[in-house]
Amino acid sequence: MATTKLTLLLAIVLILPGCTGGETPSPPQKDGLAEIGEALFNDVRLGADGRTNCATCHLSEFAFTDTRAVSVGAFGRKGTRNAPSLVGLIERGPQFWDGREGALSEAVMQPLGNPLEMGHDTVAAAMERIASLPEYRAFFGAEIKETDVSGALTSYLMSLDAAPSPFERARAAGDYTLLGARAKRGLELFQGKAQCASCHLMDASSSFSDQQFHHASVGFERIAGNIRPLLARLEQARHSGQPLGRMVLADVDIAELGRFAVTSDPTDMGAFRTPSLRNVARTAPYMHDGSIQSLEAAIEHELYYRGLTSGRPISLTVEERSDLAAFLSTLSTP
Asked: For a tag on the chain, would you pick the N or C end, based on fewer CB atoms within 10 A?
């Protein structure tokens, strides 16, 4: 239980040298920030319904996804976005499918103030809930700031450094034959004929993402003939002061605008951030709306639209597609 772990941690923090029974204890030290972040992440008392926490949509046994097409938050409220894995996050750079925040410390606070996620109407309401709990006051002090909570959650999420995947072990050894023959052929396809590495970069981060925004023609067809009234609705919501994160999760059509809802740049219409491929074989369903159910179907979709975009159709045999899937499976950790 998160509460038990937090209580134990706080007890350790408060037992400082020189604090005997008759003395006033020194203020708690901000040690164990990641552990406090883990407690916050798993504390259902923070949800407006008393039953929802961050782990509701990010389950550790599924590489911190929830296996749903789109996530369901407090009070059973359904959103519009597929929950991405939290393993291997970047601390600075575009966050969420549409990149509406530029730092993880900003992104972690949004669910707390979204009625479709943790159930609160504002972050301030969530902060009042946190401040009412003596365990957190004991750790952070009498006045808990948003930066305290965001710092703790960020520290915890950045600590989710999974064990090396088979691919990472093979790369470190400089020997890709360790992947097996099929997966090694899949790696060659990934880097070459399949053109996957053009967006899913094979850099030192092992996230396999260029952190850029691309069009994959997923879901956009449904709104393509209704853009003008949709943009008017988006503008009206902006003028009313509605946060973008709330608009995106509450309105399935606005959600399909992708990066455009952030930038208003026509070239960003229907574009979404390149997802990480780390643990990709364990995190179905796929795409921003969870509309593709299997890894094999996701491969077929990506090959078709990548070829369409480049003007060079990509044709893989059944065996080559199987090899590519075998390689992608080596990006998962135990």
From this structure: C
Cα–Cα dist 176/172, whole Å: 9
| DSSP category for residue 221 | G
Q: How far is CA 113 from CA 70, 179, 292, in A?
A: 18, 44, 29
Amino acid residing at 175: D
Task: Retrieve residue 209's tokens.
Answer: 């993402």
Exposure of 324 by Cβ count < 10 A (0-12 exposed, 13-18 middle, 19+ buried)? Answer: buried
Nearest C-alpha neighbor of 243 from the set 96, 86, 76, 104: 96
CA-CA distance, 164 to 170, in Å (whole number)? Answer: 10
Q: Are the CB atoms for 217 and 305 separated by under 8 Å?
A: yes
Of 15, 213, 251, residue with least CA distance to 100: 213
The pair of three-digit structure tokens given for residue 271, joined into one six-digit string = 């574009």
Whether 19 has a binding-site annotation, put simply, is: no
Largest CA distance in the chain: 78
Q: What pLDDT digit, counting tens, does each position of 131-176 carry?
A: 999 999 999 999 999 999 999 999 999 999 768 999 999 999 999 9
Token readout for 281 is 């074989």
57 in a labelled binding site: yes
CATH topology of domain 166-219+256-329: Cytochrome Bc1 Complex; Chain D, domain 2 (1.10.760)
Report phi then psi at 81, rounded to 5: -120, 145
- On whether the CB atoms of residues 255 and 270 are closer than 8 A, the answer is no
Phi and psi dihedrals of 239, rounded to 5? -65, -30
Non-local CB neighbours of 164 within 8 Å, separated by 6+ positions: 172, 333
Q: Where do the domains of the chain lie?
A: 2-158, 166-219+256-329
C-alpha gyration radius of the chain: 22
CATH code assigned to 2-158: 1.10.760.10
Among 77, 103, 76, 108, CA closest to 90: 103
Q: Of 13, 47, 33, whose CA–CA distance to 149 is shortest? A: 33
The answer to whether 199 is annotated as binding is yes
User: Before 285, cis peptide (omega within 30)?
Assistant: yes
